[in-house]
Amino acid sequence: MSQPDLFVVCKNCQAEVSPYITECPYCGTRLRKRAPKIDRPEDAAKPPPKRPSRRPRPRAATKPKARAKSKPDRLGRLRSGEMPGIRADEHGRPWATIVLVALSFGVWLSLAFYASSDLAVTALDGDPWRFVTSTFLNDGFAAQLAVVAGLGVFGWLLERRHGPIAVVALFLLCGPAAMAIATAVDLDAFVFGTHGAALGLLCAWLVPVLLARRRSHEDDDADLLGVLVIAAVLLAIPAVSQGSAIAGVAGAALGTLSGLTLAALRPR
Q1: Tally of domains in the chain
Q2: Does the pLDDT value for residue 65 go beyond 90?
Q3: Which structural domain, as residue segments, surrounds residue 233?
Q4: Phi, psi of 9 (to 5 degrees)
Q5: What pLDDT score does 85 carry?
Q6: CATH number at residue 160
Q7: Which of 3, 113, 221, 243 is 20 to 30 A from 51 via CA?
Q8: Lowest mean pLDDT among 155-169, 176-190, 196-210
Q9: 196 domain residue, yes or no
């Protein structure tokens, strides 16, 4: 290791100065651009630092990840009034039930212009259309309100589950057909009332619910206590106002048989 000189002679003033300075302290002449490096013993023991390589390292080849193939969601068969890719609201307007309720109010309001005997039916009448008109005929506002409530609630529930055609078919079966049974049982009876059709719709909705509870033992949102109250009110209509009790029982029986059939069908 080379040892630095003890003194350096300034070229301007010929003075001896330290070799570790860059300017002469006497005249200010510039002796060197930078001070010399002082060698230390511990620096000699250390290896020289490695310079970083400028050559970039090759990147490891990575295989692209395989994307999981997901099956596209497919909608079921389109219903009437639906657009492709948009499913209709299952809680849409129950048009069949609305029409039946409107007809019930229309026939009830027509009593102001026609006598009840012109719309009701007996076994001696030969007009088949009276079996339909007598189904919409009710005696008094309380009876009309009760049957319309039952008809609207359970008609809407059945139409949402099975469609409008099922509601209309059940109404004709538990209404006019029940009137025909009542006239055949009692030849002298003056038969009319919507309570038979309302009871039929109630039983047709209730039977599948009870069977589903028995099979799965799971509770649902159905309020059976309220259903029993409505059924009791509909059965009591012939006792408090004019109407056919036989038609009400026949409508409930036909609705029960229809409910057994609907329980085996898949909802729409």
Answers
A1: 2
A2: no
A3: 95-264
A4: -90, 125
A5: 41
A6: 1.20.1540.10
A7: 3
A8: 176-190
A9: yes
- For residue 120 the two structure tokens come to 């009701």
pLDDT at residue 14 in the model:
76
CB burial string 97-118: b at 16+ within 10 A, e below: beebbebbeebbeeeeeeeeee
Contact 263, 208 (CB under 8 A): yes
Residue 103 CA to residue 225 CA, distance in Å, equals 29
| Pairwise CA distance, residues 31 & 232, whole Å | 122
99 plus 22 within the same structural domain: no
pLDDT tens-digit readout, 79-102:
544 444 444 445 568 899 999 999
Answer yes or no: pTM beyond 0.70.
no
Residue (of 233, 252, 238, 239) closest to 148 by Cα position: 233
Q: Is the domain of 142 the same as that of 242?
A: yes
Q: Say if residue 11 is in the same domain as residue 114.
A: no
Q: Is the confidence at residue 169, as pLDDT, over 80?
A: yes
**List of residues 6+ apart from 33 with CB closer than 8 A:** 22
Q: CB within 8 A of 183, min separation 6: which ones?
A: 121, 122, 123, 189, 191
Q: Quick one: 110 and 221 in the same domain?
A: yes
